[in-house]
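USER:
Working in pairs, take the chain set out below, taking as long as you need, and write a paragraph about the fold.
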Amino acid sequence: MPTTSGGPAASGRPDTSPVRPAASGATATPRGGALLITGATVVDGTGAPPRPADVTVTGDRIAAVAPPGTFAADDGYATLDASGLVLAPGFIDPHSHADTSPLEHEDDTSKILQGITTEVVGNCGTSPDPRPYGGFGPLYEALDAAGHVTHYCPLAGHGALHGAAMDGRPGPPDRDDARRMGALLDEAMEAGAFGMSSGLIYPPGVHSAPGELVELAARLPEGRIYATHMRDEGRHLGRSVEEAVGLGARTGRRVQVSHLKAAGVPFWGGVDDALARLDRARAEGVDISQDVYPYDASSTTLLAVLPPWFLEGDDDLVRRRLDDPVQVDRARAEVDDPADHGWENIVAGDGYDRIMVSSTRSHGHEGATLAELAGTLDMAPFEVIVHLLRTEDLQVSMVDFSMAERDVETVLRAPRTSVCTDGLPVGLGGKPHPRLYGSFPRVLGRYVRERGVLDLATAVHKMTGLTAEVFGVPDRGRLTPGLVADLVAFDPSTVGETGTYADPRRVPAGIRWVMQAGHVVVRDGRWLGARRGGRLTPA
């Protein structure tokens, strides 16, 4: 059986019982912990149509899914009345950045309150540096000891491999560096990582050659995944998709295109060709899928608007360039020029008026666009970027309104698309992208109930079974006897996000309760206090 590390014993937080008498008709739990959930409409994560069913849970496992009335409460079950609710597998987020959430003093409940019980972390080439811990194994053990709110499926980030192998030295790896990177990747896989990720608009990934990534991905064990934030999601989206497809074809490894989009107003509509190319690749035998968050705005560090050469090296080098008028003028000339300079120019694609400051170290200027700040501070828009990065010591995040909702819906409909949050850790503060708190309920509310982009069964499949299949998440993703009882019950008539870009930190509506391994951990939008997640290892 796949192993689970960490959990409530390591967290030091209060325990919760499988059910409590106050929970919607639940009775006291009998000896053995057998639970009967009645009255639900089951959507099982396979894509099969919704159906009325009763579900029994014994210990941490789903014991049975049967027609209503098959079991009786007087057979010794505790009961949980789910009348009027949809019962589904716990949601699985394939693209999260909550790698260090276990180390936060505050419980990171942004995902569990959405019904997300498992998340894949280490995306976009960014995962914790293993060096301070003595390797990937001790790193994962330290995170386990802190305790996990959700189940935790780590990827090894290309950036972490590069930094550890080259000790932060800039530039491309030589053969010795490449061997060290490969050995570190092997170590991460042995420690239980689910695969490797790359972030090809961020250093050091932006400087990496395709061959470097192919060489690393080829080392992945069979069934492990390569997830990529591609080099360009705008002008050169097609070329970027070709690189991802080519890696999968050359290595025979599974590939996930992260947060597929057509970014930048001039490039809207580009997802059609991208999806067609991915379909052809699958027909040619390449194992490749994609994920999407259900919003027309992205979010990342403000540093991403600068040319790649400006970001090469460590933070001290970037700070020096920000203080060098010659380097700043060179960067300004590229950023303000809509011509193709060989990198994804976010400003050229969207303009300063579509880029909003979401968080800063001082929490100043949050919620204002760069164009608005140019007026407030009496500076040219590019000077605002330099000013913010200098005065906030590089610690500035942004929300970029870069996409068309029509494209989001097109990607969402595609059969091999999973739903993700792309959520950052909650500890950054400010006004984070509302996807951190509402992605999955938003799909169920806006794109199922309101707009009819997906039917309910398909949407749940994209949140559960499909993601478990693609990433090899063990014993989860389907509401099937024998699998772990990670479950979510929601009201299909009210489920939805409640946050906005101005006020994102809001608990979603309609998530009635969430269960992990037979234990209710969320009830009526309230976190019950025990970290019941654990680190999973690949199936």
Summary: The longest strand covers residues 35-42.
